[in-house]
Amino acid sequence: LRVQNKKLYLAAFAAVLGPLSFGFVLGYSSPVIPELRKIDDPKLRLDGSQASWFGSVVTLGAAAGGILGGYIVDKVGRKLSLMLCSIPYVFGYIVIISAQNVWMLYFGRLSTGLATGITSLVAPVYISEVSHPKVRGMLGSCVQLMVVTGILGAYVAGITLKWRWLAVLCSFPPCIMLLFMSFVPETPRFLLNQSKRSEAIAALCFLRGPHADHAWECGQIEASVQEEGLNLSEFKNPSIYRPLLIGVALMFFQQATGINAVMFYAETIFEDANFKDSRMASVVVGSIQVCFTALAAIIIDKTGRKVLLYVSGVIMALSTALFGLYFKIILPDGNNSSNPDVWFTLNSASPGTESSVSWLAVVSLGLFVAGFALGWGPVPWLVISEIFPLKAKGVSSGACVLTNWMMAFLITKEFNDFIGFLTSYGTFWLFSAFCCLSVIFTAFYVPETKGQTLEQIETYFRRR
């Protein structure tokens, strides 16, 4: 058993180096945007609009990566897809390091975003297909754990490193992933779908240890594997369209909570709300996220997926409502809609007001991040890696990842416009409403997958 666990954990660790890489991509913008807004070089200096593009263009690349990932994950396999991701990661950082103007910064972010989209699709699929049911929830939650660890790593490194050197540091995780993935096998489910039974047996021997009943597990997987391709007409089948709709809705609600708006601009929000050490405040936020995501990974196979989604949704609904209240208190009437730039809006706070209620902002943001990390951060990625039938996994996962990153783009790019149109407090109250809707959706539509094999989950949807 110990040999089995060590080998399985090695495979999972190699795969989650991809999410660690895209955590660094997401976290990179928070310490870098304030630096580039004040840089002496006019060709690289960002104004408000350019800063929002720098933060959000990565999500456009990720959306494209979701489409590409949905194709290549079924063509070249899970393992090779993850290994190929290292190329656009490293290339994007090289472009950023050598950037001479804002457009090179955009292009570098777009390239790392492309890799992020592929990784966010492939890593959960790889981990779910190599894991056994008793630890699949924990290992699947490690995807989000490594994402938030990467975000925190970027925040911490951003305290001491200038933006070019921070890009150099961010290029290391994908290189290490490429090295480690070369030592682990392809998933047995993919190999059996390619009619490579002997290689699938060898992969199971690596993942389960030499004493497990490989032939039995191989037979269970083969029973659910359908070699024929996926036709468009098959999306009329409830066993395919129901999990797809659930997956797309989970991705929609994950972003509609406003998490990326908060995380992309965490440092800027703190800085312009007149917190003395905005970078350290961002590190604290990142640390909270890592701790509670780790807690979710530990308890998810005991509590189940739905319980964590309920608790998470309620906490986020409360915290975003409080955050809206904070902005309602500190901002004078009229200033909220006079300028759609979030930095201008935050600077228009009444002098001295924010200090008296700054505890409310800290508590609200801490609660929000903790709540998200406990459920709506890791669980949707885990669930979409579990619920799709093998032959529809690439297309369905691609649709979910595309939804996630397009929503992330909409939220991060239009965050300023939301503030201009709805006011700052109205924007956070809108996020709160979506958090409430996410709880209702979970109650009626999300299945509990705790302790079930992927084959049993497929059977569940075929019987509905």
From TrEMBL:
Membrane topology field: Multi-pass membrane protein
A GO term, aspect molecular function: dehydroascorbic acid transmembrane transporter activity
Cellular compartments per GO CC: plasma membrane
Family annotation (InterPro entries): MFS_dom, MFS_sugar_transport-like, MFS_trans_sf, MFS_Trehalose_Transporter, Sugar/inositol_transpt, Sugar_transporter_CS
Catalytic activity annotation: L-dehydroascorbate(out) = L-dehydroascorbate(in); D-glucose(out) = D-glucose(in); D-fructose(out) = D-fructose(in); alpha,alpha-trehalose(in) = alpha,alpha-trehalose(out)
Segments forming domain Major facilitator superfamily (MFS) profile: 7-450
Keywords linked to the UniProt accession: Cell membrane, Glycoprotein, Membrane, Transmembrane, Transmembrane helix, Transport
SUPFAM superfamilies from the UniProt entry: MFS general substrate transporter (SSF103473)
Segments passing through the bilayer: 51-73, 80-100, 106-127, 139-157, 163-184, 244-266, 278-300, 307-327, 357-383, 395-412, 418-446
Pfam families the UniProt entry points to: Sugar_tr (PF00083)
Highest taxon in the source lineage: Eukaryota
Family statement: Belongs to the major facilitator superfamily. Sugar transporter (TC 2.A.1.1) family. Glucose transporter subfamily.
Family annotation (NCBIfam families): SP (TIGR00879)
Function: Insulin-regulated facilitative hexose transporter that mediates the transport of glucose and fructose. Facilitates hepatic influx of dietary trehalose, which in turn inhibits glucose and fructose influx triggering a starvation signal and hepatic autophagy through activation of AMPK and ULK1. Also able to mediate the transport of dehydroascorbate.
Name under which the protein is recorded: Solute carrier family 2, facilitated glucose transporter member 8
Protein's organism: Rissa tridactyla (Black-legged kittiwake)
